[in-house]
């Protein structure tokens, strides 16, 4: 009896050890950003392409208030409600004391400076694709420089309202092991700079798949149904598919600029917030997104 | 000329009313009429914006007269009193998703639907004064109109496939 108990305990210890090893947080190599100088002006474009303000501005912010990344917005999900943290350059309440490398670890590996896992409500599953892009880490360094120029906020972070077992961050390591960092979904011809840019904007920065791709029971994207449309996490209605767009590329780009569909209906739901960002991008970026969506839509 | 404009707007209104699809047997006919009327009003927004947008997009040549007419229609449409078409209890949870996309939040405590409607009529007034002043002025004004349409749809209209 005693031997059996010891055996079971032994197994449990090994199990815990395996869990601990498998669920360990990942980071970039220490010199990953060596020699990269962030440029705030270039960072503004990354910021609007990545839509950070859509989640990190205060819930009722309008216009320029959206540049105060005070946090507080709530994201209901089947696992509980996540609350966006303050990422303004305040040194105490925000991320003013973070290095570009720490921001890169957060955006690419979902790992905090203290080595904790972030929840995938922070779309690092998409941003993480930047890791394999030749300019990806530069883009993050530019973004880091831009974030430093924004107004600080001293709003404290609120705790997520997430129950057991989802409140155990360590367990997210296993989730990440299985689901995160899957790389690019679509392949593009190496010599097509516009499609390549479009892919970076749609699959990584713009995190379009986070809303437009359906998820499995544990919240991981089903990339076999890439951009095919999904349930709306807020519970009402559905998010349409954008994998079979019969709009012209011009119409798609105009929608991302003004919110107007080809019939001059006007985008609503969460897409209205996305368009607030895409309307700030240079025309060529909207054209690149449109070219990518048209390419994906080819039968 | 002015009365012709109003008459043609009326005709378009009637046409739009006639084309709204229905899956509405279980809904009180009076409520159904209100829902159809507001959807028709929205279709008229879209129709008139379509005239302006085709010029903004460069699909048709800019025409100051046509642009002013469409912008004038839009401004008038946004000034209609909405009391009778936005009946309390005519939301999608009550009437069904096949009947309306209007969310219950429109009628809930703290609703900002009135502000959203006002934002649109202000943007439409700007458009009315800009539309005849050349293509750049029109392009400059259409962005804010789009934002005010989207600003209301963002919170008060259900998204769908």
Number of helices of chain B: 6
- The Rg value of chain B, from CA coordinates, equals 16 Å
Which superfamily, in CATH terms, is the homologous superfamily of chain B? Answer: Cytochrome c/b562
- Computed structural class of chain B: mainly alpha
Major β-sheet of chain A, in short?
Answer: 3 strands, antiparallel
Structural class of chain A: mainly alpha
Per the principal axes of the C-alpha atoms, what is the gross shape of chain A?
A: globular
Q: What is the first-to-last residue Cα distance of chain A?
A: 64 Å
Order of helices and strands of chain A: HHHEEHHHEHHHEEHHH
Instruction: Give the class-level CATH name of chain B.
Output: Mainly Alpha
Can you give the helix content of chain A as a percent range?
40-55%
- Largest pleated sheet of chain B: none
Name the pair of protein chains with the most residues at their interface, and give those residue counts: A-B, 28 and 27 residues
* CA distance, first residue to last residue of chain B: 42 Å
Strand % of chain B is: under 5%
Along the chain, the helix and strand elements of chain B come as HHHHHH
Order the strands across the largest sheet of chain A as they lie in space. 1-2-3
Low-confidence stretches of chain B: 1-22
Provide a quick synopsis of the model.
The complex is a heterodimer of chains A (299) and B (161). Chain A has 299 residues and is mostly helical.
